[in-house]
Amino acid sequence: MPAPIAKRPLLPTGLRLLNWSLGAWTALVFLFLYLPIAVLVFYSFNTSKLNVVWEGFTFKWYAALVENTPLLSALKNSLIIAAVATVLSVLIGTVGAWLLHRYRYRFARSIQTLVCIPMIMPEIVMGISLLILFTVSQLELGFTTVILSHVTFCFPFVLVAVQARLHGLDPALEEAALDLGATPLKAFLLVIMPCLLPAVISGGLMAFTLSLDEYIITVFTNGLESRTLPQEVFGLARKGLNPMLNAMSAVFIVTTIAFVLFSEYLRRLAAR
Amino acid sequence: MKLIRTLLTLGLVAFSASGAFAAKKPGELKLFAWSEYVPQAVLDGFTAETGIKVSYETYASGEEMLAKLLSGGTRYDLIQPPDYVAEALIKDGLLVPIDQTKLKNFGNLMPEYLHMPHDPEQKFTVPYMVGTVGIVVNTEKVTEPILGYRDMFSAKYKNRIVALDDGRELAVTALYVLGKDLNDFSPANLAAVRPILAEWFPRIKLFDSDSPKTALLNGDVDLGLVWGGEAATLWNENKKFHYVLPAEGAHLFVDLLAIPKRARNVENAHLFIDYILRPEVSKLISDEFPYTNPNGPARKLLSAEQLANPASYPTTTRKLDTFRHIGDVGAAIDALITDLKNTK
Amino acid sequence: MQTLPGVNPENPHARRPGLAGWLLLAPMIVWLLLFVVAPMAILLVYSFCSRDDLGRVVFSFTWSNYARVFDPIYLQVLGRSVLYAAITTAICLAAGFPAGWFIARQRAAVRNRLLLLVMIPFWTSFLIRTYAWITILKSEGLLNATLLAARAIPAPLEMLYTPAAVMVGLVYAYLPFMILPVYGSAEKLDNALVDAAHDLGAGPVRAFSEVIIPLTWPGITAGVLLVFVPAIGMFAITDLMGGAKVAMIGNVIQNQFTKARNWPFGAALGIVFTLLFVLTYLALQWRGRRART
Fold it and tell me: Over 80: is that where the pLDDT of C194 sits?
């Protein structure tokens, strides 16, 4: 782990200026990211079904949301699929990146290129080709096939993120651990892994996000029992945005943000 | 090839130990339908009455449906193809005949929607809903009368038009203007269509097949070539949106219910079709999706306002055309549209 | 191009893998063979086939699908897609790099929370987010209303269904994929390096160009890859926010599998598209290696 930023005496003016403007820029980026989200939340309280003009305040879309069983079960399916796909992707991606870094494999470059193909392939091509694969092998479409497909396009993102970080890692690190008597597994888990953690986290976040929002590949590799949220949402939204979907997004986002704030609060309590 | 297949199967089975294989359950119906076209209340009502669980998968275009159906990844019990897709499926022997003796309510269907060209013997399909494609005019913004495609696509409405993002629908408008048959996509006709569309395309502000009403409601455009049901929703929202069946010619589309060859629950599919044909159930569909209802007794249950909606029940004495299966010309139409969108 | 995310042939401590090394890598290789190589092989077979009139694949050998790929129509579409993706990548880099850097410079706890905040908006469906942008940009939308109220403009601007709207949509969709990798490589930098640069008399600009950029280069290249490549294939945003007025390579491929029902041609397009990237990628890697030796 890099040394935490030590409390430094007053920064020189030039750096302070740079820091300040970077902060302002980041704030602008966050504004850009959250502007549509704010709009979504705002319109989730709108009376009008067609969501075009503001007509009045209501909670009815939230009530409709709770009663919409297909939507809720799709949400559950999506979370299950995204969670499983993320865990598998992180596992395959992190281990893969480390092995490719540590060993000089024959065909390493071919393997690396293969890893990148799912990131390059247009979704529809991947969706169709996986669909053909699954039908040729007579596998009934469902959770298994979706998860397999999702991991296939998610794990390369983890792998690339971890590789970018390994690139600047001091190669002597593992050596040192081994010299001090650690087994290779221990060296990996206790010395390398903590260094990779930020990349693993950001790669895992990417995988989770991609899986949660994937539509096209899901459509072609999914069966009826494991319908995902994007499938349900596309069905509903295709005919114009339904405020119930706004309500759902609002609940989702507010819950996550509340969770983040709450964990921060707990951490502070514990630190006291 | 066989070896590869065996290896694949072994590999995949190893991965799928969790057991995602749905064995045939007696009380089940796998429905593959358009998104936003079968009300949840209808599905729930059917399950409550029969105990049959309906799993519902949706698609956004007839072709998407065909792709998944032909691949055979899931064995659907009931599908909802548009007329010209059903015609192709019948031709290739991919549908199971429907046993009308099991459908007590079959007589509710209006005769004009039976024995249509896609299924002349009325053996394989049952009409679900019917619609037209026409022009919506925002009469607050467009004051001159719009009677047909020529009026709508005229230069003065540049950047005020939304059109369906559907190559075949667009090409058909030009065929009508030329006075040709709407199913005749001979190379000569395609060549004749090109200059007309090339003139019109730059005037169109956006193409949207899914929800063309949105741009009209948002005030981004004032004219639209849209599905009848979309126009009906617009009219319900605001009476300033008028619906016009184009003077040069207009066509009807019929969405059907049909049972694919590999269906596992043919009995349940019949039960569901019969349930849908009940007037009170059919009315629920009309309430939510204001297309033309082909069910005679169900129409009697509709309100005066529903029946007065010019987009759901257009008043015309003309005989409306229907789309036929056009084989592989679809690819040529797609190339033409891609090219036209490129060169503008 | 200094390095790409990829094999690091210069890791001096990398050694020949023994049996254990290969066994550990085996799951990933099997996965790749099953779900990347096998589907690609199927596609390759399809791309030489033709179709019957229902759109089913007929197994016969023909080059015609590949001949069609190089029709000027489709080359032009590809060119436009690359251009849009390049502009998107440039904007994402300009917007995302400082943000990724700044987040990486915070305390660990703050850092992780900011990172999560970057991703949260993307947990709502893509379609819902896009519709939210439509609400903002449409003629009678929020932005126009605000500008009109502030008397900044005399009449509503036509923003939706323009190339600018498409850019907004694309940048919004891919920004996190730039921020995250930049963060990943900026986070491990020792702050002291930047300070040292300053102590040695480098101004902010020089510190940035001579210390920060070179040190975060792997993150930048990863970010460019993660944004540029998927942006080329993207078409839903050009359809929804651009009004589907121009065709993107993603549309063309999608249409072959749906509207036009011409799977073999779609497969040929997909193969060429994928190959193009593999070749570019390999060329960049090769150049990177040559530059270093």
Answer: no
